[in-house]
Structures are given as C-alpha cells and as structure tokens.
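Hi V.,

You were right to ask for the full record rather than a summary. Here it is.
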Amino acid sequence: MDFELLFNLIVSRNKLSLKILGMISEISKSVRAVTKKSLVMVIMNKFDNNVDMNELIKALRQYTALAHLELKHYEIGTVEAKTLTLLLAEYSKSLIHLDLCCNNMGPKGAESLAGVLGQCTSLVHLDLCFNEFGPEGIERLSGVLKNSQCNKLALTHLELSYNKCGLAGIESFSEVLKNLKSIQYLDLGGNEIGSAGAERLVEVLPLCPALSHINLSNNEIKSGAEKLAQVLCQCPALTHLDLNRNDIESLGKLMFRRCSSLKHLDLSENRFKPVGAKSLARLIRQCPALNHLNLRDNQIESEGTEILAKGLELCDNLALTHLDLGYNWIGPKGAESLAGVLRRCTALTNLDLGNNGIGGKSLAQVIEQCSALTVIDLSFNRIDTEGATSLAGVLVFPRCISLTALNLGCNSLGPYGMQSLAAVLPLCTAITGLGLYNNMIGPIGAVSLAKVLPLCTALTVLDLHYNRIRSEGAGRLVRVIQSCLGSLTLTLNLSYNMIGEKIISAFEKLESKSTNFKFICEEDEEIPIEFD
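Predicted structure:
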C-alpha cells in the first residue's frame, strides 16, 4: 500500500550537514523497500557560508518526490540559482511549498526560476522575498509566468517583499496577478511601488476573489492609499490589510462603501495627523468586523484623537479587540475623549497607549472603561506618584482578573507610587509580564514589590532595570526569591541598578539551583534616563 513519509530537516546557522542528509537517505531507502513513494520536507536556514548546491542536489535526488523545500539565508546568488532550478524541474509535479527568501538571486536568478515555476502546478506556497530581483527580475518572472501554465497554478500564498520591484515591476506583476484566482495571501511590502504602483494594483486586486491578506507596507504609497481604500469593498474575502510606513496623510474625502470582511488594519507609522483622522474615522465606520486596529506613530495628537473618538461613537458595532495608539502624543485631553468611546468596546483585550504623555489620572479614566483588558502598555506617559495611585485604584475587580501583561516602563512612579501599585498586584492573579523599568522606585519601591512577589504566582517576567534599587532593595528580592525558589518560574531583569557584586553573586547562585529562574544583570557607569 502507499505510505507517505515526511522528513523534516532543520539546519540553522551551521554548515549543511550532508552526513545528516545521508543518514536520512539510508532510512528512506529502507522504507522504500516496502512502500511506493516518499515525500520529503527539507528546511534549512543558514546565515553564513555558501552552500555547495551540487552536493545538495546530489543528496536530494535520492528521493522520489520533494514536496516542501526551504532554503533561507543561503546567499544562493545568480549562478547557483540556475543550478537549483534543475532540481526544482525534477520535482515540478510534487512541489507544494517553496521558500527561497533572503538568497540574493538577482534579476538573472529570477529569470532562471521563472522557467520552472510555471511548471509547478501543485505549488501552493511560494516565498521569494529579499532576493534583489529589481524591476528587471520581476518583469522576467512575470513575463514567463503569464505566458506559461500560470492560469493552472494553485498558489494560495505568495511573498515577494523587499525585491525593489518599483513601478515597472509591479505593472508586469499585475498581469500575472489577474490569473491567480486562488491567491489568499499576498506580500508585496518594501518594493518602492509608489502611489502609481498602488493605483495599478487597485485595478487587479478585485480580480482575486479569494484574497484575504494583503501586505503593502513600506512602499511610499502616499496618496495612492485613497484609491486603495475605495476598492476594499470589492475584495469580499479581505480580512487583513497592512499599509504601515507609507507616508499616508489621508484616505481621501469620499465616503467609503461597507467592507464587511476586514478584521485587521495596520496603518501605523504614517502621517495622518489631526487632519487625516477624519478619513480614518469614516473608514472605520464602514468596517463592522474590524478587531485589530494599529494607528501607532501617526502624529494624531489630542485633536485627532477627539475626531477619531467622535467617528467611533457613530459605529453600529465596535468589535475591536486590539487597539494601538502608541506614539501619538494624544495627551490628557485626547485620552478623556477616548475613554468615552472605549466604554462601548466591550471585547477590547489589548490596548497600547505608550508614549502619549497622558498622565496617570487620565489613563485611569481610560482603563476604568475597559473590563476585559489582558495586555496594557502605558509606558512613557509621565505617570507620577499620584498618577500611580489613581491607576492602582482602577486595577481592581473585575479588571484585575483578566490582566496578563502590564507595561509601565519609563514613567516616574517613584518609591511610593510603587507601593500603591504593589498593593493591588496580588489581585492580578493572571499577570505573567510586568514592566516597571526606569521608574526611580529605589530601595523602598523594591522592598514593597518583594513583599507581594510570592503572591504573584503567575508572574514569569519582571523587568526592573534602571531603577536605583541598589543593594538594599535587591537584597530583599534575593531573600524572597530564595524562599519560594521551588515554586517560582521567573525571568528577572535588574540591570543598571547598582546592586553590587555580592548581590549579583547571590542571584547567580539561585539561578544555578533552578532552571525556572533566570537572572539578567548588566552594570555600567551610565546614568539612567529619567522621565517626568
């Protein structure tokens, strides 16, 4: 009877071990004696030393069929790319998954590959990102594919990111895309396609009925995003769209048609500012299924946040589970307007408001509206002692029950702000990660934290670097950790706290006694950065 044998070979950061391939070959030979076919998966990730492609091909030719091949970071280059295609041609009927990313094959390598890819009618997953194809290589690849058996290709997953294809390359590739009726995942990030390239894609994306994931990040799309936003409704299966780092200032003034399928939208690191926030609000209103929204680093500020909040208030349904508004300097006023609309986001679990200069009191008002949060990032927000006390007041039932990760790094909690927060930490029974770095909590804050540490039984990561804890505070932590070492699973970062060699040695001794305790401590003469 037929028997499918799947081998998975992983070689990372080492020279290709042909001995391992040889061993697998011997095993497969013995199996073939009683079976009719052998399907092989080979995964190799290497960051240095060029592979001898002839030896690799000789080893792999011992198999009757090859279904899954990954050769990452091998710097195959143009010459060896041509040699590789000889192997791929032999397995064109059985190859399902091919990953050749980060191999610097260049335009000629793309041409060599194109000839054989058109024959791989069973190919479902193809990753050719980071290969320096350039416009010429993409044109050659596209030229062969559109004139071959391209309309028979079963591709559902295609990655061509960071190949510098430019406008010329994207125009050629668009002709191929028309025929990829089964394509579901398309990654064209970092290809310098510009606004004209985005407008060219607008013409063909609606012709791909199964397309669910599109990555066009880092492409200098700019105003081209306006037309892209208008065709979202014509992609019925679209669930994920990534347009981050594209210098987008607006999505236009036109109203958008309803896009019922979109769930994940990344518009981070653009330049919407307050003016562009109006178009953001209009788009979000037409995406009732949206649950992941990333608007990080868009210079939205308080004015833009108010506009966004008013737009969200008009939504029929707010399904948001993940919201990232970090690095927008929305301030206390923007946070207050946000608090009102978040009351309606009953499914919200992940909230990032880092680097916004909000302050503890206003942040407390926001958190108070969210009862299901599991991950909260409030770093870089000028939270002082009084603000920490306000936050502690809202981190109680029911909010404390679901919380798994809290980042309060780079604020100004101080020793007494730490005391207030330490008092409520035992109530957060599910918390696994706690970031308190660079908060000037000093020995007093460390001692208050040490007192409750045994009660935080779920905690696995505690970051206290840059806090001036010194030997007094660190000494108390040593004794507490020693007392519960057997039941503890914790990674503790005490870097740059001037705790002294004696305390460091004590922690290292504890680390040697338990595989569940990891201690991180880097010390130098740098003065910690302080935020107020």
